[in-house]
Design a protein that fits this description.
By secondary structure, the chain is an alpha+beta fold. It is built from three helices and four strands, in the order αααββββ. Strands 1-2-3-4 form a four-stranded antiparallel beta sheet. A hairpin with a 2-residue loop joins strand 3 and strand 4. It is elongated. The termini are far apart.
């Protein structure tokens, strides 16, 4: 009588390595956290904080990074018009480039809006947008913002 065949140790080792790689990849995706904050004294850092405040519906924080409390109106020469922003969690802002001048700067971003789920994955729409910044008392502040990231101040109540 012959002994039963022994399992191939090479196959077991390869399967174990694959399982470890899958576990590590899953851990990286699940625990990657928030992006590192950029320096607050840079145009890109100000836009990062302003956008985070708007996405968190924190108008007071957004105002700290805006010129004259305008909260990043889309057009600097026109009154602020509230916009219907995409729902919370559906808008992603990615830094594309920064152009810095003496007292002004442009921060180019890519805005990615995802909507629901479809049969082939999560449908997304990308658009490029520009934040306009001004240096006020040595600090960079958002002067204009894309409509998706505009918050209008609440007008003061009239007596």
């Amino acid at each position: 009588m012959t002994a039963p065949p022994r399992p191939d140790r090479t196959l077991i080792a390869v399967l174990a390595i694959i399982a470890v790689l899958v576990a590590v990849a899953l851990a990286v995706v699940l625990f990657r956290g928030q992006p590192e904050p950029l320096a607050e004294n840079t145009p890109a850092g100000v836009v990062q904080r302003y956008a985070a405040a708007v996405l968190n519906n924190d108008g007071a924080a957004a105002a700290r990074y805006s010129t004259e409390g305008r909260l990043g109106t889309s057009y600097p020469d026109k009154p602020c018009v509230p916009a219907d922003r995409p729902a919370a969690g559906t808008l992603r802002v990615t830094l594309a480039s920064t152009v810095e001048h003496a007292d002004t700067a442009e921060v180019h971003v890519v805005l990615t809006t995802s909507s629901g789920s479809g049969p082939f994955g999560n449908p997304e729409y990308e658009t490029e947008a520009v934040f306009g910044l001004q240096r006020v008392n040595g600090n960079w502040l958002v002067a204009t913002a894309p409509w998706q990231l505009t918050i209008c101040p609440v007008p003061a109540a009239t007596p």
